[in-house]
Design a protein that fits this description.
alpha/beta
Length: 408
């Protein structure tokens, strides 16, 4: 009957596969899914069953896609929907910070949705180096606008507007929530039919909508884009995570291999120019939206993980439960051996935050100090004058500071 229905509707398998192969948005896929749903319903009626078919399984009740739909046992349904955007730079502690926030089971978390976008619009070198200073103004304006639109799609579960290229971003694998969407368009060992792919896409969307809190973490979102997206979503909160540039760049050089140490002067000049521009805008947003924007120093979080994590949870309106506390303790203070560079396990979070001090040379540290001096003054970081100041961890490179009236 299904074959007959497809024939009567003049939709062939070849047409379906053609739609799925294109770089068109998933709006077309959604249209196909609605068509298939109608056909499957038609089939169920024709064969005399009382239950419509969804994804090849009979069910008695078709529930609407409700943002507060309780599809997982124990998940609250009375929480007001809201959005969280974590903005930072590569190797600044965002993986750990995101892991802490994810401990609230109501959060649907998307990892780095802009990974493919930055390469296609600004070039591979920007995607690899995570620095935008050398991009043209027009290119940056275009990228900022498109990045806002793309992040919005993930914050609102608007997956029907995504392209196949957006979904083929392998970084989405790094979250159990966004991984299901990425898996929809990959080539499994057993080839999937168009109907199976559409069903996968719809299940991902339903799961997203069932979580009242949507969160996106990105190291590729500029301050100007943050300003725009905040003005468009009253229920959005932005967490701007910062780290000592010396720690960030030392880790980038080791893990990303974005530059060689002999070029640290030029690279840090570009990096701190981006940092400087974003910080100025984030400062303005902090004053405009004091209840919706928070600037968090990674070093402050590392020094007092339980206290600061509770502050972050309060800011985001999350539930700081005993399970969350246990997770943070086990990841930061229990003495477990670190798992890997991208992991969240730390034997001592404070030591991990400052491990760069034993790896960087005094010459490199001072080159970064010179390019980022105004940022240090604004955020409470301390420059070094001698090898002893750099290597002696009893000598603090962080001081309390008020930024736009807020304690960091």
């Amino acid at each position: 009957m299904l074959t007959f229905g497809l024939f009567k509707m003049k939709i062939s398998k070849r047409t379906l596969y053609s739609l799925l192969r294109t770089r068109c948005s998933f709006k077309k896929l959604l249209a196909v899914s609605l068509l298939l749903g109608s056909l499957l319903l038609f089939v169920s009626v024709e064969v005399g069953t009382n239950a419509p078919w969804v994804g090849g399984r009979a069910t008695r009740n078709l529930q609407p896609l409700n943002p507060l739909e309780n599809v997982e046992a124990g998940r609250p349904t009375s929480v007001t929907c809201r959005k969280v955007l974590l903005v930072t730079y590569g190797r600044s502690g965002s993986t750990f910070t995101s892991a802490v926030i994810q401990q609230d089971p109501r959060v649907f978390y998307t990892f780095e949705p802009l990974y493919n976008l930055i390469r296609s619009h600004l070039g591979p070198e920007h995607g690899e180096k995570h620095v935008f200073a050398r991009a043209s103004q027009q290119a940056m304006e275009n990228f900022n606008q498109i990045s806002v639109d793309l992040v919005e799609m993930f914050l609102t579960c608007g997956f029907e507007s995504l392209t196949v290229s957006d979904i083929k971003n392998y970084q989405l694998r790094n979250s159990k929530d966004s991984r299901m969407l990425w898996a929809c368009v990959q080539k499994p060992k057993v080839p999937q039919s168009p109907a199976q792919i559409v069903d996968c896409f719809l299940r991902a969307r339903r799961t997203c909508l069932s979580h009242p809190i949507k969160m996106v973490k990105t190291i590729r979102f500029r301050g100007t884009a943050a300003r725009q997206i905040l003005s468009r979503h009253d229920d959005l909160k932005v967490l701007y995570l910062i780290r000592d540039p010396r720690g960030t760049l030392s880790s980038q050089a080791r893990v990303f291999r974005t530059f060689k140490w002999e070029g640290v002067g030029n690279y840090s000049a570009d990096y701190c120019q981006v940092f400087r521009e974003d910080l100025a805008i984030m400062g303005e947003l902090l004053e405009t939206y004091p209840d919706r924007v928070k600037i968090l120093r990674y070093e402050t979080l590392a020094a007092s993980p339980l206290k600061v994590s509770e502050e972050v949870y309060t800011f985001l309106g999350l539930s700081f439960t005993s399970q969350v506390k246990a997770f943070i303790y086990n990841r930061t203070m229990a003495g477990h051996k670190p798992n890997h560079a991208y992991g969240t396990l730390r034997s001592n979070s404070t030591e991990a935050a400052y491990s760069w001090r034993s790896k960087i040379s005094l010459q490199a540290a001072q080159a970064i100090d010179g390019n980022c001096k105004d940022i240090y003054e604004a955020l409470g970081y301390v420059a070094v004058s001698t090898e002893a100041e750099l290597k002696d961890t009893d000598h603090s490179l962080l001081k309390p500071v008020l930024f736009r009236g807020h304690q960091l």
